[in-house]
Amino acid sequence: MQHARVPATFDVPLSVPFRHRVTFTRGALEAGNPSLADALAGSARCVAFVDEGVAQAHPEFGSRLAAYLRALDGMPELACVESVPGGERCKRSMEVPDRVVQAVDRHRIDRQSCVIAVGGGAVLDAVGFGAAIAHRGCRLVRMPTTTLSQDDAGMAVKNGINAGGKKNFVGAFAVPHAVLCDEALLESSPGWSWLGGFSEAVKIALLRDPGLFERIERDAAAIVARDMAAAMPVVVRSAELHYRHIVLGGDPFEVRSARPLDYGHWLAHRLEGLTDGELPHGQAVAIGVAIDTMYSVHAGLLDAASGARVVAVLRALGLPTSHPLLADLGAVEAGLEEFREHLGGRLTITLLRSIGEGIEVHAIDPSLLRRAVLDAAAT
Ligand SMILES: NC(=O)c1ccc[n+]([C@@H]2O[C@H](COP(=O)([O-])OP(=O)(O)OC[C@H]3O[C@@H](n4cnc5c(N)ncnc54)[C@H](O)[C@@H]3O)[C@@H](O)[C@H]2O)c1
Ligand SMILES: [Zn+2]
Question: For residue 197, which atom of ligand 1 is closest to its CA?
Fold first, then answer.
């Protein structure tokens, strides 16, 4: 008998076809709205985890979900609706992912059944992580309920929790089964959260779409006043640009060390870490975007007038462009090394060449950074 030769190598590219489905609607639980039924079709059972903030603002959410499913043929059985702590608290430990795993076990949620996550980006991350590890991955239907989770986080194909003092340190890449954004749910989100989400829209406009930037400049006051007719086109366009980057950008699982959409994020992540999550992600991103924009000006990449427009639009949206912790720049600069580790390779920071076009650099000059911090605070 012949033996296979050792050593042997097998090396074939492997691609797995995924579908990433995102729908924007209004009134997802109203009879006759097909979006949720489409997302759940073919699932035998489901369990739902609802952000406490959403559950408080919409105490009837669970019973309306049950009624919606009962009214239609072929819908999964709703085995339970549980509420989970909202915001960064739910990402502080494995408690929420563990609860999801236990519910999957208790209610016999198999790989053809669904976990429904309803909430802000933090709840989607923590519940999504539980769904990604139970049975090595159950179907996840996300219903994002904040501007940030509808215009950015909900489009992502990753989940996770914070650990070891690092944001999103433990997690998994997993493409959601469906994402359903109900604009009506945004109406009850807290004021700071409403505004915070627009920093991601400004960020992606700066990298990809000057027309979107002009629209935000024009409609900033109406957005602050929570005028849905002004806000939703911005939310949807931002979502579309984030979505297109994931689906068409060629690196959905972030294997490469460039993270082109993480403009302003090295600083944002550092400030979130230094404030132990007190500073919300959206506000931290606004500060990071303002400073990386002024840095781009001082580095000779971006014209000063464009820099001033960016800082002005963030301010017009009621977003911060500075923070007291920036007085100790040494502590902040350590964030660059942390970000490099996060990328897992060479430090790659996106800066701005013009409104609508980014450029990658591999080092940050501390003296220019100092000037950028002062300018973003004063401009
Ligand atoms: N997976 C990703 O790629 C990705 C991308 C960006 C951000 N994120 C994560 O998203 C998180 C931030 O998410 P966020 O900005 O959506 O905020 P959040 O999840 O922190 O929620 C903010 C607050 O609003 C409450 N809330 C949410 N929706 C509500 C509603 N409709 N009515 C009343 N209260 C409501 C929550 O209970 C919470 O107190 C961060 O943890 C960030 O790391 C993840
Ligand atoms: Zn972000």
Answer: 15
pLDDT at residue number 335: 79
Looking at 25-39, 50-64, 152-166, which range is the least confident one?
A: 152-166
CB of 123 closer than 6 angstroms to any ligand 1 atom: yes
Domain 197-224+257-378, second-level architecture:
Up-down Bundle (1.20)
Same fold, 22-189 and 197-224+257-378: no
Angle at 21 between CA 261 and CA 236, to 5 degrees: 55
Domain 22-189, CATH among 3.40.50.300, 3.40.50.1970, 3.40.470.10, 1.10.287.70 = 3.40.50.1970
Instruction: Check pocket membership of 240 for ligand 1, CB cut-off 6 A.
Output: no
The pick from 146, 194, 319 for probing ligand 1's pocket by mutation, whose C-beta has the most ligand atoms within 8 angstroms, reads 146
For residue 222, the CA-to-ligand 1 centroid distance in Å is: 22
What is the spatial distance between Cα 87 and Cα 180, in angstroms, rounded to a whole number?
19
Pairs from 364-370 (Cβ < 8 Å, separation ≥ 24): 364/295, 364/333, 364/336, 365/299, 366/329, 366/333, 368/295, 368/298, 368/299, 369/291, 369/295, 369/329, 369/333, 370/329
What are φ and ψ of residue 350, in 5° steps?
A: -85, 130
Average pLDDT estimate for 270-299? 94
Ligand 1 proximity of 119 Cβ (cutoff 6 Å): yes
Residue ranges covered by each domain of the chain: 22-189, 197-224+257-378
Structure tokens at 187: 């109406």
Pick the residue whose CA is nearest to atom 40 on ligand 1.
122
Cα 149 to averaged position of ligand 2 atoms, centre (Å): 10
How far is the centre of ligand 1, averaged over its atoms, from the C-alpha of 260 (Å)? Answer: 22
Least-confidence region, from 230-239, 241-250, 251-260, 308-317 = 251-260
